[in-house]
Design brief:
GTPase that plays an essential role in the late steps of ribosome biogenesis. This is GTPase Der. Associates with the 50S ribosomal subunit. The chain contains four helices and six strands; from the N terminus they run βαββαβαββα. By secondary structure, it is an alpha/beta fold. Strands 2-3-1-4-5-6 form a six-stranded mixed beta sheet, sandwiched between helices. Helix 2 runs parallel beside helix 3. 41% of the residues are buried. It binds guanosine-5'-diphosphate and magnesium ion.
Length: 165
Amino acid sequence: PIPKVAIVGRPNVGKSSLFNWLAGRRLAIVDDFEGVTRDRMTTLIRDEDEDYAFELIDTGGLGIDDPDDLTADVRHQIELAINSADVILLVVDVQTGLMPLDEMVAERLRGLDRPVILVANKSDQPHQDNLASEFHRFGRGIMITVSTTQNRNRSDLLELIVERL
Ligand code: GDP
Ligand code: MG
């Protein structure tokens, strides 16, 4: 079976952007307004040379009845991740910094027996990398700073994922 990698995190941290960036094409809807992703987004990531393949899942905004109920969205993401993922990408936003909902997501992942990679997104410039330090404890030691818009650290992130499949 093809291993599954689930992207989780509070709204607007860049989950759908990360999904599209890793997929190399625009599949998920990226929007400035929170809670916009409506469909289950799944795609196959494959690299012939490196000989790996995994299914990537954007869990954000799935099946929310009430788009204002962010807690329900996050709960649903975690449920999906727990039910399907071999590796979890916990996405945070270094520009807004740590928010209570980030704490909630991390808390819900804490007991899980699956690798969790902390993806500190929106580190658009190298000097912003140190902003990620406040999220350190979420990562269980595995953390990477990226920028989906500035194309920073994509291959390093892929390497971290593939090592854990
Ligand atoms: P989601 O709700 O977690 O799926 O987040 P989206 O992928 O829809 O992105 C939310 C907003 O963050 C959009 O306006 C994106 O353009 C923006 N965004 C995503 N990645 C980056 C990044 O690396 N740097 C910056 N500056 N903005 C980003
Ligand atoms: Mg989204």
